[in-house]
Design goal:
Blueprint (H helix, E strand, L loop, with lengths): L24 E4 L14 H12 L3 E5 L4 H11 L4 E4 L4 E4 L4 E5 L4 H15 L3 E6 L6 E3 L12 E2 L11 E7 L5 H12 L4 E6 L2 E5 L5 H12 L6 E5 L5 H6 L2 E4 L5 H4 L4 E2 L7 H13 L1
Parallel strand pairs: 1-2, 1-12, 2-3, 7-8, 12-13, 13-14
Antiparallel strand pairs: 3-4, 4-5, 6-7, 6-9, 9-11, 10-11
Length: about 290
C-alpha cells in the first residue's frame, strides 16, 4: 500500500545543511603536532577532525616518517585515507596499505654527499630508511632511534647501499641539529636536500623533495587546491608545506624557523593546538 500524500499546507522541518568548511584540506604533521608527547591523539583533537570531516573537509597526514614507521600510528587513529610519508617521498594509501608513488635517494649521490659532510664534521652516526611498505630503517653504531620505533642495527656501512633508500639520517656527537644541518648543506647541498625533522633527526633527501611536493600530489588526487588547504606543523621540514598551503599554523612547541614563516601560532601538541584552531573555524562557519 502506498503512503498517503501529505495534507495540503503541511510543512516538514528542513534538514540542516552545514556550510562548507573554510578549508577543504586539513594537513597535519604527526610527531610534535598531531601526536602528543606520549604518542597518542587526544579525544578533543579526534573530535575536531571528525567535525571538519563531517562538514566535507579531508584530513591528510603529512609526516617525515616513512610508511612503515607511520603505519601503526595511522592504524591506531583508524586513518584509512591518503598519507604523505617519508618527507614527501611516499604517497601512501593507508586503507589499502600500498604506495601510490615513491621517490628514492640516489645512493651514489648519497655516498658522495656523506663523504663530503664527514670531511667537514668528522664521523657521524647514521641511519637510513629503505624504500617500500616493508622497508626497514637501518641504524648504525651510536645512532639513537626514538623509543618505540622499529629498526635493524648494522655494523658495516656497506649494508646501507644494498637496497633502494628514501632518505638518510645523521647525528653528530657534539653538534646540535641546526649546526649539523648547516654544515651538511654547506658541504653537499648541491647534491642532496637537507632538513631538520625533529630532535636528533637531520635528514638527507633527494634534491628538491619536500612535504609540499607530496602534499600537492595528494591534493591533486583529492581535487583540492592549495588555496583551500590549512597546514599544521612544528619543525623546519614543515616550512615547504606552509609555503604551499593557504594558511600555516605552527604549534606552541614549534622550532623558531617555522615560527618565522607561520601565519598563526596555536597551543602545543600537548595542549590540543590543532583542536583549538579547528573549533574556532567551525564556530565561525556556523
Amino acid at each position: 500500500m502506498s503512503a498517503e500524500p501529505p495534507a495540503p499546507g503541511r510543512e516538514f522541518p528542513a534538514k540542516r545543511v552545514h556550510p562548507e568548511p573554510a578549508y577543504g584540506l586539513v594537513a597535519t604533521d604527526l610527531d610534535g603536532t598531531l601526536l602528543r608527547t606520549d604518542g597518542t591523539v587526544s579525544p578533543r583533537t579526534r573530535a575536531a577532525l571528525a567535525a571538519v570531516a563531517e562538514r566535507g573537509a579531508t584530513h591528510v597526514v603529512v609526516t617525515g616518517r616513512s610508511a612503515p614507521w607511520a603505519e601503526q600510528v595511522l592504524a591506531d587513529l583508524g586513518y584509512r585515507g591518503l598519507a604523505v610519508c617519508g618527507q614527501g617521498s611516499q604517497l601512501y594509501d593507508a586503507g589499502e596499505r600500498r604506495l601510490l608513488t615513491s621517490m628514492t635517494l640516489d645512493r651514489q649521490l648519497a655516498r658522495t654527499a656523506l663523504a663530503r659532510i664527514e670531511a667537514e664534521t668528522g664521523p657521524l652516526a647514521l641511519a637510513a630508511s629503505q624504500d617500500g611498505v616493508d622497508g626497514a630503517v637501518l641504524a648504525g653504531p651510536g645512532y639513537r632511534v626514538r623509543e618505540g620505533l622499529a629498526y635493524v642495527r648494522f655494523t658495516d656501512r656497506d649494508e646501507l647501499w644494498v637496497r633502494p633508500l628514501n632518505k638518510m639520517y645523521l647525528q653528530h656527537p657534539a653538534l646540535d641539529d641546526d649546526a649539523l644541518a648547516k654544515a651538511a648543506r654547506a658541504a653537499a647541498g648541491e647534491l642532496v636536500g637537507v632538513t631538520v625533522a625533529g630532535e636528533g633527526v637531520v635528514e638527507l633527501l633527494p634534491q628538491g623533495l619536500s612535504k609540499a611536493r607530496g602534499l600537492s600530489l595528494a591534493a591533486r588526487r583529492l581535487g583540492v587546491t592549495a588555496e583551500r588547504t590549512i597546514a599544521f606543523g612544528d619543525m623546519p621540514n614543515d616550512i615547504p608545506m606552509f609555503d604551499w598551503a593557504a594558511h600555516g599554523v605552527a604549534m606552541g612547541n614549534a622550532h623558531p624557523e617555522l615560527l618565522a614563516v607561520a601565519d598563526e601560532l596555536t597551543a602545543s601538541n600537548d595542549e590540543d593546538g590543532i583542536a583549538l584552531v579547528l573549533e574556532r573555524l567551525l564556530a565561525e562557519r556556523g
